[in-house]
Amino acid sequence: MKDRVGLGWRPELAAGILANLARIDIVEVIADDYFGAPHRMRRSLKTLAAQVPVTLHGVALGMASSVRVPHKLVDHMARLVGEVQPEFWSEHLAFVRGDGIEIGHLTAPPRTLRTIEGTLKNLDIARAAVGMAPHVENIATLIDPPGSTLSEPEWLAETIRAAKCDLLLDLHNVHANAANFGQSPAGFLVALPLDRVSTIHLAGGKWIGPEGSRRLLDDHLHDVPDPVYTLLETVAARTMRPLTVILERDGEYPEIESLLAQLDRARAALARGRAQNAALAA
Amino acid sequence: MSARLEAFLARIYVETEARERFLADPRTEAAAAKLDADEIEAVVNIDRVGLRMVAESLRRKRAKRR
């Protein structure tokens, strides 16, 4: 199997994606958009899956939590996976609710052994209901999670080792967290078991906050910055596994050609990394 | 992370009044939420710049969805 490069499915991009399937190897669909959706929407998703490889990506299960993932959401995911038969499904290592309060987005849990324990329980529930384990994604954070006793790569490595899950490695999140908390993104990658990475996310963001305390927000509204392509090249150089790379864009949509050009840059970065990989193996 | 800490963080990320009360007197608010001693120390030493940024980011996301 070869490396593949694709795009996140968004209604605003639908026409551009369907007109350019020759340049898009795979499409990632936000699963939650289809939970409880009308039959015609689900049928159109199955039609899409018949034309191009599809993966389903969850955003609201809240896996990294001591609170059980809501059965209703897990059941929705299981039903959708059963209907669409994606190559795989994925979710974030985030907590999204507490005591009835819906946070409304992904937030980073304190990185402790205790949160790993809660995450493992939730991943077990999801795996049993859906019939396959999700690929789990590292998230971006603007706040250093209070009470953390493990570094982010330590927490991620132990979670995916214990859960026996693949890691969906979001390289813009690696870039953003490293920038925000004074770490080295290359060092982050060295500390991860890259043989467990099968999928990559690329995205862009922007700097926010006053001078002296600026942080990089992963907003998915901007083009992929150069350092993220460099990280992609690094990963491709250090793992033998075929990689599925997905570009995420959630708004301020440019012309489809601009997104396709970013896919081409990702392919070029993969090719450079693979060339280094082959040279090292020779 | 205990369920209590998760709930506490969710509240100060999302609810402006709860966040401002916490920032004014973090130890009292954390104790009132029945966090354990380690959790109280963790939130007393919270990354305040990050807290305000994450709260604003979440507020914007919710406003966009409405």
Q: Can you give me a brief rundown of this structure?
A:
Chain A is an alpha/beta fold. Helices cover 41% and strands 18% of the residues of chain A. Chain B contains five helices and no strands.
Protein architecture, described:
The complex is a heterodimer of chains A (282) and B (66). With 282 residues, chain A is an alpha/beta fold. Chain A is 41% helix and 18% strand. In chain A, strands 1-2-3-4-7-8-9-12 form an 8-stranded parallel beta barrel. A two-stranded antiparallel ribbon of chain A has the order 5-6. Chain A is globular and about 50 Å long. Chain B is mainly α. The model of chain B has no long low-confidence stretch (mean pLDDT 92). The interface between A and B is medium-sized, with 30 and 30 residues.
How do the strands and helices of this protein lay out in sequence?
The complex is a heterodimer of chains A (282) and B (66).
Chain A: E1 4-9, H1 14-18, E2 27-30, H2 39-51, E3 54-57, H3 71-84, E4 89-92, E5 95-98, E6 101-107, H4 113-130, E7 135-137, H5 152-163, E8 167-170, H6 171-180, H7 185-190, E9 197-202, E10 206-208, E11 215-217, H8 226-238, E12 244-247, H9 256-281
Parallel strand pairs in A: 1-2, 1-12, 2-3, 3-4, 4-7, 7-8, 8-9, 9-12
Antiparallel strand pairs in A: 5-6, 10-11
Helix pairs in contact in A: 3-4, 4-5, 8-9
Chain B: H1 3-14, H2 16-24, H3 26-32, H4 37-44, H5 48-65
Order of helices and strands of chain B: HHHHH
What's the N-to-C terminus distance of chain B?
Answer: 31 Å
Number of helices of chain A: 9
Structural class of chain A: alpha/beta
Helix/strand class of chain B: mainly alpha
Biggest interface, chains and residues, is: A-B, 30 and 30 residues
Q: What shape does the CA trace of chain B take?
A: elongated
Output the radius of gyration of chain A: 18 Å
Give the fraction of residues assigned to helices of chain B.
over 70%
How far the N terminus sits from the C terminus of chain A, by CA atoms, comes to 20 Å
Question: Largest sheet of chain B, described in full?
Answer: none
Mean pLDDT over the residues of chain A: 96
